[in-house]
Amino acid sequence: MKIQLSDHFKYKTLFKFTLPSIVMMIFTSIYGVVDGFFVSNFVGKTPFAAVNFIMPFLMILGGLGFMFGTGGSALISKTLGEGEKDKAQRIFSLLVYVSVLCGVIMAILGIIFIKPIASLLGAEGAMLEDCVLYGRIILCALPFLLLQFEFQSFFITAEKPQLGLASTLIAGFTNMILDALFTAIFPFGLVGAAFATATSQVVGGIIPLVYFSRKNPSLLRLRKTEFDGKSLLKTVTNGSSELMSNISMSIVSMLYNIQLLKYAGENGVAAYGTLMYVNLVFIAIFIGYSIGVAPVVGYHYGAKNENELKGLKRKSFVIILASSLVMFILAEVLAKPLSSIFVGYDKELLELTVRGFHIYSFSFLFAGIAIFGSSFFTALNDGAISAIISFLRTLVFQISAVLLFPLIWGIDGIWISIVAAEVMAVIVTLIFLKIKKKKFNY
Predict the structure, then answer these.
(1) Dihedral sign, Cα of residue 103, residue 101, residue 379, residue 27
(2) pLDDT value of residue 91
(3) CA distance 341 to 153
(4) 5 falls within a domain
(5) For residue 249, what are the domain limits?
(6) Which residues contact 407 (CB under 8 A, 6 or more apart)?
(7) Ramachandran bin of 83, using left for φ above 0, alpha for ψ from -120 to 50, beta for the remaining angles
(8) Helix intervals (H) in 122-160
(9) pLDDT tens-digit series, residues 211-228
(10) How high does pLDDT run on average in the chain?
(11) For 421, how many CA atoms within 13 A lie in the half-sphere containing its CB?
């Protein structure tokens, strides 16, 4: 039976509707992890460190796709809830066209300036050359990466989350197969890994573009549109939290790499890269759920169904808290086996990674609340509060902690700083949920 945005959502319905989004985000993270696995084991430690070093910069640019996707979905779902389907399709089309244009411009600028940027961040020698080589190949596919990221949200708003999952699976398997082919079977090295990732991004962007360009049974379809500055501004405002989160996390990752180079050298960067791969998969559960439930929240907010909003918030907290506990336990138990997959070839690096893992895992107890809280306010079209939560969580708290804590606890302070930042973010999120309760009646 098809689940619609207008339905009453019980736990079972909510889980069934958001599951494709959760799996989609997990799989997106997993095929990024696979990329790191092949580079680490078949290309070398320096290229692996280079990929992790330049990836935050690439993700800053890719964050535009999340901005258009989450911000646009909030506005489109609210418009659908108000009964204006034609207007919703015009907004949808405008956002897709604008994102393609932005992707082309950012790709060109990125290719030109990537070497001085990588050098400014601290990369040098062979690591610098690997950063530039990998980054330029990935940047060629940037417009498609933006489309892939934004369509992950648009498929859910169109009531077709399963198709979004299918598209992501196809792109992911493309990356995995080509990674194995171009690094493990044919010795194409870092170029092969980069080409595999770029190709998967092209596939992930084109499939949904073709689907929405043709007549389809979903709520959305690409069509002729006109410039709507008000809707575009509202989308950017709504999605600013996701863009801010992406930019902030990337900036913080760069800072973590700089700190780790200072305290532990290249091994520190490689260890952090391993933790980030696992973090991507675990955090993907929170992000996937938040993306999946956001259009439902936006629809019922537009339709003024206050009881449904209250139920969605309450059920979401139960789901997230239960998931957080499970993730923490898994992270503690699997710290060494997961670390061994990436850095088992180096005993000293493995010990450093496992110790960091045991400390870092406490962050999973707290991260989900702030991620959901930010997404919840985006869905309510309150981009300002959403952006504040993301800004504090991913930038202010983490930068303050990562600069201060290593002075006290050394390299352990770097891992502790992440946990402390998540705790502070939960406190801020709960405060805003309390303050805004009367305004939105949830």
Answers:
(1) negative
(2) 94
(3) 31
(4) no
(5) 11-440
(6) 413
(7) left
(8) 125-139, 142-157
(9) 999 998 888 999 989 898
(10) 87
(11) 28
35 with 201: CB under 8 angstroms?
Answer: no
Cα–Cα dist 16/264, whole Å: 44
Average pLDDT over residues 31-41: 75
The number of distinct structural domains making up the chain is 1
Residue 93 in any domain: the answer is: yes
Could you tell me if residue 3 is inside a domain? no
The pLDDT score that the predictor gives to residue 32 is 64
Comparing 265 with 20, the larger pLDDT belongs to 20
Question: Does position 28 have pLDDT exceeding 80, yes or no?
Answer: no
Q: Is residue 340 part of a domain?
A: yes
350: which 2 tokens?
């493995």
Task: For the beta carbon of residue 77, count every other beta carbon within 10 angstroms.
Answer: 29
Q: Quick one: how far is CA 121 from the chain centroid?
A: 22
Q: Which residues contact 423 (CB under 8 A, 6 or more apart)?
A: 366
Residue type, 376: F
Looking up tokens 């997106």 gives 28
Phi, psi (deg, nearest 5) at residue 151: -70, -20
Q: How far is CA 90 from each of CA 77, 79, 161, 220, 419, rounded to the nearest angstrom? A: 13, 11, 21, 9, 42
Q: Is the pLDDT of residue 269 over 80?
A: no
CA distances from 203 to 6, 166, 196 (A): 32, 12, 11
Q: Answer for the pair 25, 291: CB distance below 8 angstroms, yes or no.
A: yes
Question: What residue type is assigned to position 3 of the chain?
Answer: I
User: What are the backbone dihedrals phi and psi of residue 146, each rounded to the nearest 5 degrees, phi first?
Assistant: -60, -45
How confident is residue 31, by pLDDT bands cut at 50, 70 and 90? low
CA-nearest of 201, 193, 57 to 142 is 201
8 Å CB contact between 342 and 37: yes
Does the pTM surpass 0.70? The reply is: yes
Q: Confirm if 288 and 21 have CB atoms less than 8 A apart.
A: yes
Distance CA(174)–CA(176), nearest Å, equals 6
Between 383-391 and 229-264, two packed helices, what is the crossing angle to 10 degrees? 10
pLDDT tens-place string over residues 58-110: 888 888 888 898 889 889 988 998 888 899 999 999 999 999 999 999 999 99
Segment 162-178 mean pLDDT: 89
Residues whose CB falls within 8 Å of the CB of residue 144, separated by 6 or more in sequence, listed in order: 103, 201, 202, 203, 204, 205, 206
| Residue 392, both tokens | 């504090």
